[in-house]
Each structure stands twice: as structure tokens, then as C-alpha cells.
């Protein structure tokens, strides 16, 4: 089967509301968690990669080779680097970059054109009442400290930090598949990621686990408000992703 669209996210939290909304059916024939769903008159597939560029590259490769989608969308949560993007805002990727914080190197990643003009997609989201901007998606090899390490990328137009978009964009470009990046902001420019998340690095599994968060909280119970806020932001961002996809997918 050739799918109209393949969606790629890192973590289950990012897509749970969407999977419920479309009544997705689990697939067991791929080497990654995946679901199939109706998309207009055709079908779509959603795969979870786990965190990080290497994981996203491998998951995108599987989706493109085995599902042969007509379009690829990389989606998930993102962090704002400069003022102007508040938690809950959706951002469409206008350019894609890879940033090496240890070397201070910023590299633009070639990406194919989106399925529809970004200005059209943005306008449709705005008409649906969703806050949305066009931005520069900057993929880093690990979660960075914004104030200490984010200076070299702060000059980009509306920079948004993530861990996967550039890898998916590069693979879509290699295969000539129309590509769209969609992120919803979970942390504003002046907010840093909690230590237990920032300590994650490639090779340590798909992402931080609940017991890691509980251990971080037990070390200092005063961190509870920060942990609760993080949970609320994540759930709200996942709902916003589902709302945005509800607007975008009929156009693709």
C-alpha cells in the first residue's frame, strides 16, 4: 500500500491525542511502534522513533522504504530560543539546521518543498484559531542549555530547538519526498529544560523514564511545581498537535 502521508514523532506523549482522534490501528510489521489511520480518501501511517537524530533517521528510512508515503511530516515538541513564541504555539519549519554545540557549528540542511505552500498552511491554521508561526528548526545532538549554548543560533528567524527534524528533512530530501516540519512549543525562551531531561543523550534509550523523573524530584521536593508544569505543558502541546494535524492533513 502507498500512503498519502507518513507522520514521524519521537515519543508516545506527543501523539496520543491524535491517535485517539483518528482511531488509529496498531501495526506490528515494522521495526518501530507504528499505527495506521484514515487520511481523507487514502491512508496514513505514524511511526515513533525515540529521541535523537540517529533514531529519527532510522525510523524515517523505514517509513519511506516500507510504506512509500507520498509526503512525510516530522512533528513533536520544541523549545523557543528567543522571545515571541509562547508555550502552545505551533510552528511550521521554514528552514532546517543542525547545530553542533561543542564546536559552535551551525549547518543548514537541504529539505524538499512542503506538500503545500507554508503560507497557505499557516493561514489555514490561523483561520482555525490556532497560534502559528514560520520558523527555523534547529536540531541538536542533545538537549542544550539555552543561555549558555544557544547564542550562535539566536540570529535565525524564529529558531525552535528539537532533536529530530533535521535528520528527517535530510532523508526526505534524499528520497525526493515532500516534507513538512511541525512543532508545538513547550518551553519559552527564558525557560530551561529540567536537569533530568537535559541529562539524556543518544545511546541512553528512547528517552527519559518515569523513574528518572521521580528520582530527580526525590532529590529536591521543591522541584514539584516545575515537574507538574512540565506535565501540563506536554499534555497541552500534544492536544495542540492533534488540532493542527486535523487542519493540515485534509490539505495534504
Could you explain how this protein is built, in words?
By secondary structure, the protein is α/β, with parallel strands linked by helices. It has one domain: 3-Layer(aba) Sandwich (Rossmann fold), CATH 3.40.50. The chain contains eight helices and ten strands. A hairpin with a 2-residue loop joins strand 3 and strand 4. The chain is globular. The two termini are 17 Å apart. The model has no long low-confidence stretch (mean pLDDT 89).
Characteristic key phrases:
252 residues, Rossmann fold, globular, alpha/beta
Number of helices: 8
Which oligomeric state applies?
single chain
Q: State which percent range the strand residues make up.
A: 25-35%
* CATH superfamily heading: Nucleoside phosphorylase domain
* Average of the residue pLDDT scores: 89
CA-based gyration radius: 17 Å
Helix-strand category: alpha/beta
What is the helix content? 25-40%
Task: Report the major sheet.
Answer: 5 strands, mixed, barrel
Report the CATH topology name: Rossmann fold
Outline the fold blueprint.
Blueprint: E1 5-9, H1 12-22, E2 25-27, E3 34-39, E4 42-48, H2 53-67, E5 72-80, E6 90-100, E7 105-108, H3 118-127, E8 132-139, H4 146-149, E9 159-162, H5 165-175, E10 179-187, H6 195-198, H7 210-219, H8 224-248
Parallel strand pairs: 1-4, 1-5, 5-10, 6-8, 8-9
Antiparallel strand pairs: 2-3, 3-4, 5-9, 6-7, 6-10
Amino acid at each position: 500500500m502507498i500512503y498519502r502521508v507518513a507522520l514521524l514523532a519521537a515519543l508516545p506523549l506527543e501523539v496520543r491525542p491524535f491517535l485517539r482522534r483518528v482511531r488509529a490501528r496498531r501495526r506490528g510489521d515494522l521495526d518501530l511502534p507504528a499505527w495506521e489511520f484514515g487520511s481523507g480518501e487514502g491512508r496514513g501511517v505514524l511511526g515513533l522513533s525515540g529521541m535523537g537524530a540517529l533514531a529519527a533517521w532510522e525510523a524515517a528510512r523505514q517509513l519511506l522504504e516500507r510504506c512509500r508515503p507520498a509526503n512525510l511530516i516530522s512533528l513533536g515538541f520544541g523549545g523557543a530560543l528567543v522571545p515571541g513564541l509562547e508555550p502552545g504555539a505551533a510552528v511550521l519549519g521554514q528552514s532546517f539546521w543542525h547545530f553542533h554545540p561543542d564546536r559552535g557549528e551551525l549547518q543548514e540542511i537541504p529539505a524538499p518543498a512542503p506538500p503545500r505552500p507554508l503560507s497557505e498552511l499557516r493561514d489555514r491554521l490561523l483561520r482555525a484559531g490556532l497560534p502559528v508561526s514560520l520558523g527555523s528548526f534547529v536540531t541538536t545532538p542533545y538537549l542544550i542549555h539555552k543561555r549558555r549554548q544557544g547564542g550562535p543560533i539566536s540570529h535565525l528567524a524564529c529558531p525552535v530547538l528539537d532533536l529530530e527534524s533535521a535528520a528527517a528533512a535530510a532523508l526526505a530530501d534524499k528520497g525526493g519526498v515532500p516534507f513538512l516540519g511541525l512543532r508545538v512549543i513547550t518551553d519559552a525562551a527564558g525557560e530551561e529544560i529540567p536537569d533530568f531531561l537535559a541529562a539524556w543523550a543518544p545511546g541512553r534509550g528512547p528517552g527519559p523514564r518515569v523513574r528518572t523523573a521521580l528520582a530527580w524530584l526525590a532529590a529536591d521536593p521543591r522541584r514539584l511545581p516545575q515537574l507538574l508544569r512540565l506535565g501540563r505543558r506536554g499534555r497541552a502541546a500534544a492536544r495542540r498537535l492533534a488540532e493542527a494535524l486535523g487542519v493540515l492533513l485534509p490539505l495534504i
